[in-house]
Amino acid sequence: MVLATAVGAGAGAGSVVFRWCILAFTRVFAGHTDYASAPGSHNPLVPWLGPFFVLLAPVAGGLLYGPLVNRFAKEARGHGVPEVMLAVAQRGGRISPKVAVVKTLASALTIGSGGSVGREGPIVQIGSALGSTLGRVAKVTEGRLRLLVACGAAGGIAATFNAPLAGVFFAMELILGTFSAEAFGATVLSSVTASVIGRAAFGDVAFLNLPRFHVDHLTQYGLFALLGVLSAAVGVGFSRVLYLIEDACDWLWRGPEWLRPAVGGLALGVVLLALPEMYGVGYPVLEKATEGRYAIGLLLLLLVGKVLATSLTIGIGGSGGVFAPSLFVGAMFGAAYGLGARDLLPGTAGAVGAYALVGMGAVFAGASRAPITAVVILFELTGEYSIILPLMLAIVLGTATSRLLSRDTIYTLKLSRRGIDLTAPAQGAPLGAQQVGVVMEPLPTPLSSSTSLPDAAEALSRSGYGALPVVDDVGDYVGVITAEAVAEALMEQPEAAPASIGRLAEPPTPVTTDQTLTHAVHVLLTSAGAGLPVLDPGRSRPVGWLSYRSALRAIHTVPAPQAA
Fold this sequence. Notes:
mainly alpha, 5 strands
């Protein structure tokens, strides 16, 4: 608890410094606190350049952060969240402390000089690096170190966006990938501490100031549902274009990596000259879209421009997040959809801003596949609870559609392109590649589904296992009966207890002989008992047993040489 609170304080202070750096560099490069609020204006520091200063701002910024990232922390390049996910999943939560400093400067320089990226990725990486560093100084266990990394991410999100709940769920849903009482308690402490610091510095106001929206007609729920499905396609498309342009930049560039952001900054400058609304994060433009101040054509142009500008910023080696761009894209798409719906159904469509807000959450959910985080963070960013029902509906449908369209999310795709599977063991790990059929133990005697509770209790007590497989009268697999389930049934009233174990047997996620041990161990970790039956490839009959003991024994199993 003390460490989680300390990490939250560090993340909160880090977010204040990070926001200050962005503001300072934006004033230097653009002459405004947020150039997107006055697109096309000149820089008072170099008035003779007029609006053409945006051609040179990304170049100047790239000359500063390019060598910095290349020399001190190459992992600070890009949007940051995938690197934190990888550190938690396969590196025991170990993140270099210099990442926090380099990421702060590099991302602030990127955004301040016109990079069309967000703040959430950098602050997640900054807070996580602080958590990892403090955990290693305190010499905590590996499990606690991972948790402190998540605490840093939660604190960073909470303080930056004044969204303490969103920070908690972001950390558990995306960084840890699991929910537990311990993780919730620790991340809440960190998030609350960071939020107190953030509110002291920035005030306790909603991050986005939007008008209030209401659902006035039941037909609107159908429109919001369709918006959720379409937004998922937009989110997945954004992910694909992001990495497609990054691949193109990799293919085109043949010079030193430290120079790449400066040279690529020329291309980004051309985009900013054509669409100055793309400068920086772009929240003022987003707010105008939710107010219905843009026509459909301009909204679609801004959508395409944001996808291009963000992808180009990341592709040339910039440092920044993709959360804010996904909100921007969602707002543009949702507002355009709302205008179209209003033209087709003028009496029932409702406010355009409501569709923009729902589009923000649905596109982010489609890109990240984090529905809980999407619902909570949209509520906290806007303070809008009035359309929570259509927001939840669209986000859930968007998440489901995204799962059908793509195996990876905008975060995991970066890793899978490098051959990294977060669910697999780390490269070079001694455990995971073997097939289950090679390492499984002999199958304990299965119980028939007609076995009585007292007989099942006796068999379980003699077996030495906490669970046993259950088969039907012809030997086909039914499920697993655990000692816990039998004990609970025996404590019930005789008339309430089942006569046999058939109704108590539950089929866990199937594990077959031809699957890898990696998959099987993940299933074993989520199972109720201390072991699982191994099924034949047809998944009809149990043929072996897998326990933690047999999985660990696989480390010392030397495969027999194959015949020539």
